[in-house]
């Protein structure tokens, strides 16, 4: 990855399927956690070059959710095409703070603040984030 700055907001499209909704075609509140996870996984893959299994194989670590705050503004509906966004906010020794949002066209449906912790894959003990990831994240404009 180059040392130039990259766009600070990563975007991933997600379609609302029948399995994500209730009988009225409204997305379950828990479905948004899955939508956010998909976008974070693809952000890690695209921006950092690592899949979750790649992190385990190369470093013996995973990122787990430490805290998650969701604010719901409008419902997603069956067959909506959503834009799920990820923005890096801050990085600590073993912690990563992210801002995420779910959009439908010009409407923000859900806003989320997420804190991840880097832990060993075998015992779930907190460890330092690998330097290679830190260097890549320095290229993300944190706002």
From TrEMBL:
InterPro entries: 4-hydroxybenzoyl-CoA_TE (IPR050563), HotDog_dom_sf (IPR029069), Thioestr_dom (IPR006683), Tol-Pal_acyl-CoA_thioesterase (IPR014166), YbgC/YbaW (IPR006684). CDD domains: 4HBT. Residues 24-110 form the Thioesterase domain. Keywords: Hydrolase. One of its GO terms (molecular function) is fatty acyl-CoA hydrolase activity. Belongs to the 4-hydroxybenzoyl-CoA thioesterase family. NCBIfam families: thio_ybgC, YbgC/FadM family acyl-CoA thioesterase. This is Esterase/thioesterase. It comes from Candidatus Nitrotoga fabula.
